[in-house]
């Protein structure tokens, strides 16, 4: 079940990556739902998304909290 949530989160984040505000909002939700090791995997995924969409860089502050 948990792995399905992680994959779903990645799908949602990739679909909203066009809008930094919406991306940050979905990222906050994901950080509440996912397990600690999944959050570490998500950080790697988000860094690759930021390379494609530099405007998402402002959401990195959520990952440090």
Can you describe what's shown?
This protein is mainly alpha-helical. The protein has one domain. The chain contains four helices and no strands. Helix 1 packs parallel to helix 3 (36-52). The model has no long low-confidence stretch (mean pLDDT 93).
Please mark out the parts with pLDDT under 50 across 5 or more consecutive residues, or reply none.
none
Number of helices: 4
Query: How is the main sheet built?
Result: none
Distance between the termini: 26 Å
**Which outline best applies?**
globular
Oligomer designation: single chain
Describe how the helices and strands are arranged:
Blueprint: H1 2-15, H2 20-33, H3 36-52, H4 60-64
Tag the structure with descriptive keywords.
single chain; 65 residues; mainly alpha; 0% strand
Question: In brief, what are we looking at here?
Answer:
The chain is an all-alpha fold.
